[in-house]
Amino acid sequence: MTHRSWLCPSLILVALFIGSWKFPLSAASTATATAPEAVSLQSGDFLWPKLANKVVPYNSEAGEATDAARVQWEAERKAELSRLETLASLTEEERTRYTVLSNMSYQEFLSTYLADAPTGTVTPFGGIGPVATGHVAIVEVRNGTPWVIEAMLHEGVREIKYQEWLTARSGELVWHGRLKDAPADKRSQIAIVAKQQIGTPYNFWNFDLADQSGFYCSKLAWFSVWKATGRALDDNPRTKRSLWYSPKQMLKSNQVLILFNPGSY
Predict the structure, then answer these.
(1) Which residues pair with 142 in a beta bridge?
(2) How far apart are CA 81 and CA 208, in angstroms?
(3) Closest CA to 16 of 102, 126, 110, 111
(4) What is the helix (H) or strand (E) element at residue 151, kind and residue range?
(5) Cα–Cα distance measured from residue 87 to residue 231, given in angstroms and rounded to the nearest whole number
(6) What share of the chain is helix, strand, coil (3-state, %, to 5)?
(7) How many CA atoms does the CB half-sphere of 74 hold within 13 Å?
(8) For residue 208, which of 175, 238, 172 has the smallest C-alpha distance?
(9) Which of 29, 43, 94, 204 could form a disulfide with 90 if both were Cys (CB 3.0 to 4.6 A apart)?
(10) Which residues lie below 8 Å from residue 117, measured CB to CB, with a gap of 6+?
(11) What is the pLDDT of residue 80?
């Protein structure tokens, strides 16, 4: 379980969520910059991309979420509920998951996963907020060239050069963060752990953060920090969870310093 309760007694309709919430701009941020400069990146840093004013895919792909994503999520939700129903007994986390997913709509999921709203919140698509992100990636710098390590739907955990990654995500804004109070050599271990997972399949429905058989993007980041430093990004050392540890939770973590903020839009 995370710091946030996943059970909410009622649905809360909101017109805008966190629309006015902003990160402090770093000195490197400008009115026109949309992504951090390559020279500012260090091994173990984190990147959060998204299109301005768009609902972003939860499955780590570039661009805007489509109706096909809703259909896919609903099918995956049904499959997870069916799997839980076949188990002889459920853990506390599994019982909570079954209860929440049984009553969760796709739009509630978007509010919960992308914007870190309390479970049961329904946020209109246009009000998902300026930093409602669905993806996070890890940086490794090799011989002066930054690479991106990330968990992707069709490829699993992969690596790609930062400039190629930016090209593939043309038009997206990119937030840049770094683990607080950790020396460079310790932060570089985050990238090493992440790189060791390259080739591991993508699995959005693997709720054990310590299980290396499958990763989604923010699980990979949580796991890499945990293995490299012994720290839990959400201050919760329990690895078995009821639901996902999301990119937005990580972006808001008090253990992460935001170095580049492209601003609200």
Answers:
(1) 145
(2) 16
(3) 126
(4) strand 145-152
(5) 32
(6) 30, 15, 50
(7) 8
(8) 238
(9) 94
(10) 14, 17, 111, 123
(11) 98
Contacts of 177 (CB under 8 A, 6+ apart): 45, 46, 47, 48, 251, 256, 257, 258, 259
pLDDT tens digits for 45-72? 999 998 887 777 888 888 888 888 899 9
**Cβ–Cβ < 8 Å for 228, 79:** no
Q: For residue 12, what pLDDT is reported? A: 34
- Tokens for 37, please give them: 């400069």
Question: Which residues, at least 6 apart from 93, have a Cβ–Cβ distance to it below 8 Å?
Answer: 1, 207, 240, 241, 242
Which position has the higher pLDDT, 57 or 149?
149
pTM for the whole thing? 0.84
* C-alpha–C-alpha distance, residues 112 and 185, integer Å: 34
Q: What is the pLDDT at residue 54?
A: 79
117 or 108, which is more confident?
108
Structure tokens at 143: 């011989």
**Domains by residue range for the chain, with CATH:** 38-260 (3.90.1720.10)
Among the listed residues 3, 42, 58, the one whose alpha carbon sits nearest the alpha carbon of residue 246:
58
Name the strands in the sheet holding 156-161, side by side, starting at the edge strand that comes first in the sequence. 156-161, 145-152, 137-142, 46-50, 173-179, 256-260
- What pLDDT is recorded for position 246? 94
> Is the pLDDT assigned to residue 97 strictly greater than 80?
yes
Encode pLDDT of 191-210 as tens digits. Answer: 999 999 999 999 999 999 99
Confidence (pLDDT) at 131: 59
Task: Answer yes or no: are the C-beta atoms of 113 and 246 closer than 8 Å.
Answer: yes
Round to whole Å and give the CA distance between 239 and 110.
23
**For residues 46 and 262, what is the distance between their CA atoms, to the nearest angstrom?**
14
